[in-house]
Every structure is written in C-alpha cells, then in structure tokens.
Design goal:
The structure holds 2 protein chains of 2 kinds. By secondary structure, chain A is mainly α. Helix content of chain A is about 60%, strand content about 0%. Chain A has 2 domains: about 120 residues, no CATH class; about 160 residues, no CATH class. The mean pLDDT of chain A is about 95. In chain B, α5 crosses α8 and α11 packs across α14. The chains are: A mainly alpha, B alpha/beta.
C-alpha cells in the first residue's frame, strides 16, 4: 500500500487546444505593431516615448492593483500591456507624460480593476480612459493643436475636424491611397489604414477577435456614411473617407472587439457592430464631436449585456414554448 | 494533444480516429491475471446483508445476486475465490461493491448460465446477460419505462483516439447480424439502426440492420447528437433518449449478446483501446476484471508517479488514482498521460472570449452558465442558462482560453441539482 504510485487526477477533458489569454494578448500586440511602427516612423522619438511609457505605466498600475487587492500577479497575461498600447495608439505623439500616467490609471484602475479585473470590465478600459481625457483636457486630444509643429509631407490637418468645420470640399485633398498609407494626422497607431487592416485580418484569421464584430462595425460605418453621402454629397463625405479616417479601423479591429465588453452570440455581435458603426457616423455627421468611435463603442458596450440576451435556444429547450 | 490550428476562427474540428488499416489480427491478447476485481451496485447500507462473502468459491459465468433486496447481479468473469469485498463510490457518488477474486488458471464454467440462456426462452435469460462486455446495464433496454420503438447500435466510439467499437463492427459483422436478431427478440421487436462512420458502411451492411452513417467529427457519436442527426429527434433537456423510446447499445454489446446466447457461455473478454503517452494507440483483448497495472505491464507501458491514468478517452474519460482499477464492461479505452503533458488550470475568470459558445454543439450560453456555476447558483443555471441541455462532450473546457474547468463545473452542477431533487423528494415524503 505504501509504495503505491500516485497519479494526478482531474476532471475531463485531458486535452486543451493550447490557447491562453497571454497568447491572445501578445498576438494582439503583434497585430498592432505595423500601425504603431508607422506612427513611430512618422513622429519619431516622442511617439516611441508615448507608446513605451503608456505600456509600462499600465503594467505598473496593474501590478499595484494586484498588491492592493491581494490578487495573484496578473501582468503576465499581457492584458494590461494591451490596454496601455491601445491607449497610446489613440493619443497624439505629443501627449505629455502626466496625461499618460493619469490615462493609464483611468484605464487600468477605473476601467478594469475596480470591476474585478480581467473579464469583468463592462466597458473597454482604453476607451474609458480616452473618453475621460477627451472630456477633461480637450487640447490634448485636438490633433490639429497637438501636432502643430510637425511637417510630414501631407496636410497637417485632422481630416475629421476639417470635414466637420470646412465641409466636404476641404477634404477633397485626401485620397484613399494616401489615407491607407497613413498620410493623415491622428493618434500614433490609428492613422496607418493598411497596417491596421493587415493586423485586423491577422487577428480574425487566427481567431483572436470575433470577425462578426469587426466586419459589422465596418459595414455599419460604410452603409450609414453612404446613405448620408447619397442624401447630400455636398455636406457629407463618402463612406471610403469615413472608413479610413479617425479611429474607424482601430475601432473595428482592436477596440470594439475587446472580449469582456462585447457580445458573444452571433446576432448580438452583428447588432453590436452595426449599431456602433451607425452611431459613429451619426456622431460625426450630425453630432457635436469630431470623431464618434469612442462614444459609439462605449455606448454599445453598455448595451452589450442586453444584446447578448438574444441567443438561440439550447438543444432540448426548444419544446418548452411550442 | 490536438492544438488549435494556426489559422482558424470557427469551431474546433476534432475528428474521430479511424482504424487506419488496423486488422483484427493485430488485436493483442493480454495474458490472464491472477487477480480480478468486479464492481456491482451495492445494496443500501441499512440492508447490508450481502449474499456472498469472502472465501466463497465462484465459477466463471456464475451469476451472483448481491442481496435479496436488490436487483443487482454480478456475472463473474473468472473462476476463483473471493478475497475481498469493499464498498466504493463511483464518479457520481453511487455506492458500489468491489469484489476481488483470486483467479485460478483454468476456468470452470458455471452450468446455470448455459441452462438459463436458451435461445427459445430469452425472457428468462435476461438476468444472466447483465454485465456483458459493452452492456453495463441491459435491464434498461429490456424493461424500459417507455416502450422501445428503436434501438440504436452504436458502431462509433464515444471519444477521440478510441477505436474499440469500430473494430467490433469491422471484425464481427456476422456476430452483429445474429446479435441484432436476438436483441430484437428480447426487446420486443423494435426497429434497429446501426450507426457507423462512413468508411465502415460496407462492413456494417453485413449486419442486415438499417445502417446509417454519421460524419466522424466530435461529438457526433454521443447519443443526443445521434438522436438529432440520425433520428431527427430532440432529447428534452434533462431527459435521456430512453424516455423517447430509443435505446442505445454499443456494437460490442450486441456481439457479446450473440456470443452468450449461441455459445451458452458469458463472454468474459473485452476489447480495449490503449492510448500511450505518445498518443500511439493499440488494441487489446483482455479478460474483464483484470487490473490495469497488469495490462500496462504486459504492454511495457511505463507509468510513474505524477502521470495521469484515464479510463476512457481524452475528452470524456475519467482519471483514476490507482492502477488497481479493473477493466469493466464499459471500459472502452485506457489512456496514459505523462506528467509533462498535463494541462493545469489557470487563475483567470471568464474573459468572455466566446470560444465555448462557438464550440458548444447544443448552443448553451456557456459564458453565462459558468459564472452562475462558479457561484453555486445551480438552480438558476438550470432554469436560465440551460445546464441540463449539456450533452457532456467537454469541448467548452477544451477551448477555454482562461483554462476554466467548465466541464467539471457543469458535472458538479448536475450532481448538486440531483442531490437537491432527492432532498426535495424525501422531504415531500
């Protein structure tokens, strides 16, 4: 009896497909890299500083909260780093250090940890921080003002702001090709359309984000912008312009798809994406703000629990209401 | 271990292992072991008098009634004397008796079996047919609460890597044919359907039964999935196919039935798939009751402390803590995993990634279900989030990014619910 071998016992299944939260986080960062590198190439050392400082601060806030809340150290799962990176990608290269310090605090602590950490946040943490920064220090998020001292060989005006205040004529200088290649001002990681699309396709192909959300968001933006454009081409820009400017692409592939704050059932995912796209263009075209992505996605984050109630009946439960 | 493919955003695609040209001749015979253990449903502890005791001599095929108060019987697979009787509990807490037998080299066959099993009077034979390989409980098929309309003979294996039932279909087509006839006779002439993977349809046709093929991807061989895909019937949540008049029996069970009736001897060997640490599989034929350690010894499969030993396959098997466990009538596979292959759970809560929703074959909102189960809200889980619809395939745990033991939570939830029901019933008198 005493020399009996002991075996590890646990419940089935004894296989796992090898996925993990950390692998997902690092792949999201990898997918964001083309857009981020382009931003660093365009804006130089200040952009690199914003990105690295934001990621470090986010991880440090996470670590501090782990200790304060006496929870296992969770920076290894990469989620805090992703949030820090997303925040940096949305901000201009000239963002001062104290905004990053406060911004990452808002994202990690207010946006995520006070709800119980990863998986419990009802809103996208990076967007919570961006919204608060935007409402608190308008000048920081005003790309025309922030990037005043840069001359990069393309019009140094924020396309959406120009559209809003000067009309469609004023943005006729932006070509689709130029926008795709990042010839526009904006957040560090949100202007290089092609890079974001490549990253997004990579994430969809590998199953790290849910394609239904990304595609329906883009479709929502496209269709709504198209309807506006058809109704009055002199006032409202075309759908291509809306797809490639502002935060549309980063929103579709990196922000709206954040796991915890988005639905998981098929129809809710489509509704969530499409309504966020619709709301984005509504805010841009008839709302007060220049870009609508941040508040559109936050708004739909709030609707997520309700939307996710629309779900198919499980097998064997179908008879009940018959 | 099947990893997620590099590109892939749909459901996990897990295909059942086929025999891949393995011939019946390659099934290894495992030598007879001196020790045998059998399990039988224990009588209620308050009526403790068990009809047999330590020291009793028993013959192969002898049918032992456990207690005058219990219907449970045990058919001995060996000749020898009882060395130990102990109480055990199974996975779901059911009380069992473990009867250890010191087995003799040569078999003395019990006459009562051959007298009892007469092809002409099959009704009386039923008590002897319990515990045949592949039929842990034939009584449910013979005395069903709802009259049986259909019996599904399952020629597919329950789990990945397991090929036991497929081998039976391949090698014992003629036995299946006769067995199905006897089965019809015993069970009151229901319609019999033989379900096999497509590549075995010619072999299956020999059986003369209605043959239906099922796409060999997991979890299509589970009874609820066969009900849905083949019979186009939906099993209500929490019910089993028997309540719809459909019985399930494994192909091996049917072949064993034929053997028992025509040979007038109980079949005492069982076909088992052995899955090594390298996931190489081999098929063996072994006397029921043989402890697993003597099988592993005979096959030279090393097993060290800290490894994992599983009865069944990788998705739905049950890990056991001792290699003294025997091969039982429903043991289709034995799997060994090295300690370096073990997957350990994580600390993370559900991150709502939705992988389980994609994977679930019965559309359970697993992401919500697991939140309730983690907080012991079993009734809410059953009422609102479809706990009882679960067909126990384990895919949710397999794909879980946060490595939550979802399947474990589900089984715990079902178990706790059954306890609550029992408590309620006894409270209501």
């Amino acid at each position: 009896m005493d020399n009996r071998k002991l075996f590890v016992s646990s419940h089935a299944p004894y296989w796992h497909n090898g996925s993990s939260i950390a692998i997902k986080s690092y792949n999201i960062m990898l997918a964001a890299l083309p857009a981020v590198l382009m931003g660093i190439y365009q804006y130089g050392a200040p952009a690199l500083g914003v990105v690295t400082f934001s990621i470090s601060c986010a991880m440090i806030w996470e670590l501090i909260m782990n200790f304060v809340m006496r929870r296992p150290v969770s920076i290894g799962d990469g989620n805090a780093a992703v949030i820090g990176l997303m925040l940096a990608m949305l901000l201009p290269a000239t963002t001062p250090w104290w905004v990053l310090l406060i911004g990452t605090f808002l994202a990690i602590v207010v946006g995520k940890q006070i709800y119980g950490g990863i998986g419990c946040n009802p809103l996208n943490p990076a967007l919570v921080a961006i919204a608060m920064i935007f409402l608190s220090w308008k000048g920081i998020m005003d790309f025309n003002e922030a990037l005043l001292n840069y001359e990069l060989g393309f019009p140094m005006i924020y396309p959406l702001a120009t559209l809003k205040y000067f009309g469609v004529e004023a943005v006729s200088g932006f070509s689709i090709g130029g926008l795709l290649m990042g010839s526009q001002t904006g957040g560090i990681g949100s202007t290089f359309g092609l890079g974001l699309i490549i990253g997004g396709i990579y994430l969809i192909g590998r199953g790290f984000i849910r394609w239904e959300i990304a595609i329906s968001f883009l479709a929502g933006v496209f269709i709504t912008a198209l309807l506006f454009n058809v109704a009055n081409p002199a006032v409202y820009a075309g759908p291509g312009f809306h797809l490639l400017t502002g935060y549309t692409l980063i929103g579709a592939f990196f922000l709206a798809t954040e796991d915890s704050s988005s639905p998981v059932n098929f129809i809710p995912m489509l509704l969530y994406g499409a309504l966020a796209g619709l709301l984005t263009v509504l805010i841009r075209n008839i709302g007060a703000m220049v870009d609508g992505v941040v508040f559109a996605i936050l708004m739909l984050n709030l609707a997520n629990p309700l939307l996710d109630k629309i779900r198919p009946k499980a097998l064997g439960k179908e008879m009940e209401n018959a | 271990m099947i990893k997620k493919p590099f590109f892939g955003f749909g459901k996990p695609k897990l295909d059942y292992t086929d025999l891949a040209g393995l011939e019946p001749g390659e099934v290894k015979e495992i030598p007879f072991s001196k020790q045998a253990v059998m399990f039988v449903e224990a009588p209620h502890p308050t009526v403790a008098d068990i009809s047999f005791q330590v020291g009793d001599d028993i013959k192969t095929g002898q049918n032992l009634k456990v207690s005058p108060f219990s219907k449970a019987t045990l058919t001995s697979p060996v000749t020898g004397s009882i060395t130990d009787i102990s109480r055990k509990k199974d996975y779901l807490g059911k009380a069992l008796l473990a009867v250890s037998i010191d087995a003799a080299e040569t078999d003395t066959w019990d006459d009562a079996f051959s007298d009892g099993v007469q092809a002409t009077e099959l009704e009386k034979a039923v008590q002897y047919l319990t515990g045949l390989p592949g039929i842990p409980n034939i009584d449910a098929l013979i005395h069903p609460e709802t009259p049986l309309k259909t019996i599904v003979v399952n020629g597919m294996d329950k789990d990945l890597l397991v090929t036991t039932q497929q081998m039976v279909v391949k090698s014992r087509g003629d036995d299946l044919k006769e067995g199905i006839e006897y089965l019809k006779k015993i069970a009151g002439n229901p319609n019999v359907i033989l379900v096999v993977p497509p590549y075995l349809s010619t072999e299956a046709a020999k059986s003369g039964a209605e043959v239906r093929t099922v796409t060999p991807s997991y979890p299509n061989s589970l009874p609820e999935m066969i009900m849905k895909d083949v019979l186009k019937q939906i099993v209500p949540a929490g019910a089993d196919p028997l309540s719809l008049g459909v019985g399930f029996i494994s192909a091996e069970g049917v072949a064993a039935l034929k053997f028992a009736i025509t040979e007038k001897k109980p079949p005492v060997t069982k076909m088992v798939t052995v899955i090594e640490k390298s996931e190489k599989t081999q098929m063996i034929r072994v006397r029921m009751g043989t402890p697993i350690h003597s099988i592993l010894q005979a096959l030279h499969i090393p097993l060290e402390e800290g490894d994992r030993l599983v009865i069944g396959g990788p998705m739905t098997g049950r890990s056991i803590y001792t290699e003294d466990m025997p091969v039982l009538p429903d043991t289709d596979a034995i799997m060994v995993q090295g300690k370096d292959q073990l997957q350990h759970g994580g600390n993370d809560p559900c991150v709502n990634c939705g992988e389980c929703i994609r994977a679930c074959p019965v559309r359970i909102p697993v992401n919500m279900l697991v939140r309730l189960l983690e907080n012991s809200q079993y009734e809410g889980a059953a009422n609102e989030y479809d706990l009882l619809s679960c067909i126990e395939c384990g895919l949710c745990s397999y794909v879980c990014e946060a490595k939550i033991p979802v399947f474990h939570y589900i089984m715990l939830g079902k178990y706790e619910l059954s306890l609550m029901e029992k408590a309620e019933e006894s409270a209501n008198g």
